[in-house]
Amino acid sequence: MNRGAPKLSDVARMAGVSPATASRALSTPGRVRPETRARVDHAARLLGYVPHGAARALASQRSRMIGAVIPTLDNAIFANSVNALQGTLAESGYTLLLGSHAYNPVTELQVTRELIERGADGIVFVGTDHDPQIYRMLATFRTPYVLIWSLDPSGRHPCIGFNNRDAAIRVTRHLLDLGHRRFGVISGLTAHNDRVRERLAGVRDALRARGLELSPQAVVERPYSFASGQQAMRELMGRRPSPTAVVCINDVLAIGAIIECRAAGIDVPGDVSITGFDDMEISAQLAPGLTTMRVPTVELGRAAATYLLDRLAGREVATFTELPVELVVRGSTGSPQLESPPGPQHAVR
Amino acid sequence: MNRGAPKLSDVARMAGVSPATASRALSTPGRVRPETRARVDHAARLLGYVPHGAARALASQRSRMIGAVIPTLDNAIFANSVNALQGTLAESGYTLLLGSHAYNPVTELQVTRELIERGADGIVFVGTDHDPQIYRMLATFRTPYVLIWSLDPSGRHPCIGFNNRDAAIRVTRHLLDLGHRRFGVISGLTAHNDRVRERLAGVRDALRARGLELSPQAVVERPYSFASGQQAMRELMGRRPSPTAVVCINDVLAIGAIIECRAAGIDVPGDVSITGFDDMEISAQLAPGLTTMRVPTVELGRAAATYLLDRLAGREVATFTELPVELVVRGSTGSPQLESPPGPQHAVR
DNA sequence: GGCAGGAATGAAAGCGCTTTCAGACTGTAG
DNA sequence: CTACAGTCTGAAAGCGCTTTCATTCCTGCC
Predict the structure, then answer these.
(1) Which pTM does this prediction carry?
(2) Mutate to test the interface with B, among A80, A88, A95, A283 (most CBs of B within 10 A)
(3) Bases on strand C under 7 Å from any protein CB
């Protein structure tokens, strides 16, 4: 078989040392005489030696691989995080094992099992919504893990994220402060997605705090895609009275909504204000620019990597990290036109 | 150590069989009496047995992991392909090992080494531009691989892709046929990127075939980002005479260009026609819609997975697969205005 | 009833590495 | 000169699985 692949014993023989010493020279250079180490290094280089990961993992009980279980890579927001995660892991000699589940909890469980089976030393999950079996498996195999994008209210699971509800409240307040009273919401699918549910709840909270309720038909739930956003916007603007402000649960839907307005000749923000969530690269470039909540996607990926790396190295780690999000106000939001009766605060002015 | 994790011998004992039989029952159910298999399955389920991937890989010389080496996940186009790749692999019980290199050949070599070290049974690469050492390593370790997104002219490497040059020729011809004679090009970085170089060459070929040359200052080379596209467009439109058609080497740059035109009050396609390449989801939604070359990103990922899976299973595989690309004409291209002198063909009309 | 032949099982040898454990060797102190 | 840390190296035992190879157990057939 792999006749072309030199093994550790080949390196050892060439360097004139035992396999044990060769192993030490390569993995823990400090525990070997410099001269010996040089001989081994030289032999390894000459032979083009590449250690056999599986053998190493079996013997050392460490795979140097980190798994990530994400909904999908089709959402640029996750792709960015994964990119940062992978990059940071690579810097420390770790490799990324990637699994996605398309928001299907059964698939997620299976994917997780697969990653554990492959020996992932740690696993990153998105959000807090996970099958109890997943947590049970993680416990059984003593696999460190961390949740990103959300904060775990129960405090039982290490997490790195931000408060989706509070962030949504801030977005909604921005619109309320502009004088809006008639709201529409374009939501992502709430099933198996705590982030969407939290954001939706945040919108409701903010409205309720000002005495407003969100009627069921003011909320349209759609999968993430530009086309869904467009279609949802069309629906919303067909209602009477139509909303003066539409809160979108993420930027993809919001951009779809803006596109729909442009197509339908609806002025943004003149006729309707639109907000997003995530702040994708393109959101700043649109005309009008999208008012949205900036989420530190890159930082999220990097922090997850650092967390697991630290934990595996036995360093101290914070099990709860809240990252800042920032409301970015751009051209897609403004005060409602006069035809919509101003609320009490504005009547005062 | 892993005291919580049951091993094969535990399953075997519980089922009252030898480890060998338990192994067969789980991996090759056909080679075991149904009754025995049931006992083993039952024991495995009861114990929550998860095979130890590294041990299995070591013994069987198969890791059931496939690696992918890509430039970056920040480009949605690659993210889509990787998503499809991962999904297809998962269906066959394979897991994806992901590495990216940000167009740095040194990083690419290192990442590849890492994937081989982790035991990837096969590896997917993007494009044809790779360090000879990479191919040497693949040969040494007898690691099957496949290149995607490009066609290998030398025929030495298995590939699944399309002819970037021909595709660019088709895009350019479309503009020529509309009557354009003054061209600008917004290119991606050509270093370590055969796709960009080929597309650029295609544009030149098409122009030359109609007696036109691309002057050096008509080509602006920029990294992939909306902002670069904008900036490049600004530069291009500052030249005198300004181009009536701008060919962008991918959609990200093209969208940036369109955005710049909107901001600068330049009418598309009235004042200038713009084309992209890739057909991202958003390209269809813009106003005007972007004329572009549709690339089968999902199919690319799926086909790569299928290729490697087939090869690993010992099935016949085609080492050269050309996938169709399609010119999608939308609103961003039109005939040049009269102020630009019509070319000979048009003079005839 | 005995035997060939195939199917199912078990014993045991690794897969290539890490890691005790013990031995060898060095230098320093008594 | 002996004794004793301390440092470096080698022998060997696995890590948890797969996979020959040999054995046992059937089944069918003469």
Answers:
(1) 0.93
(2) A95
(3) 7-12, 14-20
Rg (CA), chain B: 26
B235: three-class secondary structure by DSSP: helix
Say whether A126 sits in a helix, a strand or coil: strand
Number of Cβ within a 10 Å radius of residue A238? 8
d(CA B216, CA B272): 20
pLDDT band at A343 (very low <50, low <70, confident <90, very high): very low
> Is the CB of residue A176 less than 8 Å from the CB of residue A244?
no
| B128 in reach of chain A (CB within 8 A) | no
Q: Which amino acid appears at position A324 of this protein?
A: P
DSSP string for residues in A226-279: HHHHHHHHHHHHHSSSPPSEEEESSHHHHHHHHHHHHHHT--TTTT-EEE-SB-
CA-wise closest residue to B211 among B343, B349, B334: B343
DSSP-assigned beta bridge partners for residue A186: A220, A248
**pLDDT range class, residue B270, cuts 50, 70, 90:** very high
pLDDT in tens, B214-259: 999 999 999 999 999 999 999 999 999 999 999 999 999 999 999 9
In angstroms, the CA B257 to CA B132 distance is 36
Question: What single-letter DSSP state applies at residue B291?
Answer: B
The CA-CA-CA angle for residues A103, A108, A114, to 5°, reads 150
Contact A74 B79 (CB under 8 A): yes
B97 contacts A140? CB cut-off 8 A: no
**Confidence band of A3 (pLDDT split at 50, 70, 90):** low
For residue A159, with 0-12 CB atoms within 10 Å meaning exposed, 13-18 middle and 19 or more buried, which class applies?
A: buried
Which three-class secondary structure state does DSSP give residue A321?
strand
Average pLDDT over every residue of B127-139: 96
In this complex, the residue of B5, B52, B73 whose CB is nearest that of residue A83 is: B73
- The per-residue pLDDT for A213 is 95
Q: How far is the CA of B308 from the C1' of D16 (A)?
A: 27
Between A218 and A349, residue with greater pLDDT: A218
Bases on strand D under 7 Å from any protein CB: 7-12, 14-20
Q: What is the pLDDT confidence band of residue A338, given thresholds at 50, 70 and 90?
A: low
What are phi and psi for residue A248, nearest 5 degrees? Answer: -105, 140
- Smallest Cβ–Cβ distance between B90 and the set A99, A137, A225 belongs to A99
pLDDT at B346 over 50: no
Domains of chain A in sequence order: 8-51 (no CATH), 65-162+297-324 (3.40.50.2300), 164-295+328-340 (3.40.50.2300)
Over 50: is that where the pLDDT of A195 sits? yes
Which residue stretches of B28-118 are H helix? 34-47, 53-60, 76-91, 105-117
Structure tokens at B122: 């096969």
Report which DSSP code applies to B48.
Answer: T
Distance CA B149, CA B166 (A): 13
Stretch A324-328: mean pLDDT? 98
